[in-house]
Amino acid sequence: MNVRLETAIMPAAPDIHTKRSIVAGMLAVWCAGAAWAQAASAVRVALPTLKNVEEVRRLTEQQAQKGYPVHLRAVVTYSDRDDLFVQDETAGIWVNRPRSVTAPAVGDWLDLEGVTAQPDFAPDIMNPHWRRLGQAPLPEPRRPTFDQMASSAADAQWVEVEGTVRSARMEDERLRLSLAVSGGKLLVELVNPASNGGDLVGAAVRIRGVCGTLFNSHNQIIGIVLRL
Known about the structure:
Layout: H1 16-46, H2 53-57, H3 61-64, E1 69-79, E2 84-87, E3 92-94, E4 108-117, E5 124-135, H4 146-150, E6 158-171, E7 174-181, E8 184-191, E9 204-215, E10 221-227
Parallel strand pairs: 8-10
Antiparallel strand pairs: 1-2, 1-4, 2-3, 4-5, 6-7, 6-9, 7-8, 9-10
């Protein structure tokens, strides 16, 4: 007679002590994570609210990335589909306006809140929301030298420059002028201009606008632009 024996392997009884250790470890990790989140939240709460643009501009890149809260009042100096600049009594700055939010108009006086960031070479205001208080005059323009503009010291400021128009072209519904000034050349951009600028070539002009800095993907300055 052939007899076939099969041995059933029964599962071992659970190790209660091991399970308790795993649960205790998981609780410890969770508690540590919760404590870290609370500490991080406390740091964010402890950051002081910046009350003017110059305080934002003085931040280092590391500080700006912490997301300091900002609450200030400023006038809009430039506004289009891509860019928004505002300026208070201390300085001007770029505001990262969400595309879904209607742009305010130049001259609008805003009560503006947001947080700091630095996605490129200078601190900006991110996640903005504002309340329109009315209209305000544009600030008295600064008159920086070419070197000051080229160093980005005048970036985002309402300025006045004098020079001679060397060329003019229409591009992307904007008039772009090459302007020769003392010390170098800069680009002037006008949105929805009244003409194609051909009559300006060779003319001596005085222009007021927001000074911007052109830079490459490595945050290296490659030019100056005046927006108006």
